Amino acid sequence: MNIKTLLMLLITLCSQPVWSQQAEARHTMAVTGTESAALNTRLALRDLWVEHVFWVRSYAIANQQGEGKQAGTAAAEVAANAASIANSLAPLYGQPAADQLLKLLAEHWGAVKHYSDAAVAGQAQGKNTAVEELTTNAKAIANFLATANPNLPETTLVAMLSAHGGHHVAQIDQLGNRDYAAEARTWQAMREHMLVLADTLTAALVKQFPDKF
């Protein structure tokens, strides 16, 4: 199944708004007054992963518009965010594991940037190569996470991360085609998918390290 097919499947499956789930979580927290370590971790990871897609989108928009300074700022923020995501795992898995994840996240960003740059330059082969890089990287990140945490099925992670890469590809193409209505739908799906990914990671962490939560 290629990356664009996975994207279409994801958009179809994500018909139930995740924002309503957020509202329920906030309501429950307000009622119970409970702010557990698990909830704090969940919310922190949600923020980090949504920030990832925000800054990548900012780069793609600036790149399409030829705004070099803005694109450079966005790229720097993507890198800083990747470091934050990786380092969030250091207290549980150690700094070497965090460093390895950072390397994989940097490769993910490199592939997305490659696709954006190739799209702006009109280089079809460059876009194809970038998709191959994204696909390979999704498998590598999935293997890393599944190896670190047995509660994360590798096949599930491959599907989720491939769909995530597909979102980036679709968004860049839609921006290039000035199909802003389609891009708005993709942007919504991207944010919701990041919440699902963050929640999946949190649940696995809580199950693996119950004494920490």
Description:
By secondary structure, this protein is mainly alpha-helical. The chain has one domain. It is built from 9 helices and no strands. It is elongated and about 50 Å long.
Summarize the structure.
Helix content is 86%, strand content 0%.
Helix/strand layout:
Blueprint (H helix, E strand, L loop, with lengths): L2 H11 L4 H15 L4 H29 L2 H20 L2 H4 L1 H27 L2 H25 L5 H23 L3 H29 L5
Helix pairs in contact: 1-8, 3-4, 3-6, 3-8, 3-9, 4-6, 6-7, 6-8, 7-8, 8-9
What is the overall silhouette?
Answer: elongated
Number of structural domains: 1
Mean pLDDT equals 88
Q: What is the string of helix and strand elements?
A: HHHHHHHHH
Write down the Rg: 17 Å
Helical coverage, percent range? over 70%
The major sheet is characterized as: none
Structure summary, number of beta strands: 0
What's the helix count?
A: 9
Distance between the termini: 37 Å
Using brief descriptors, characterize the structure shown.
213 residues; mainly alpha; elongated; disordered N terminus; signal
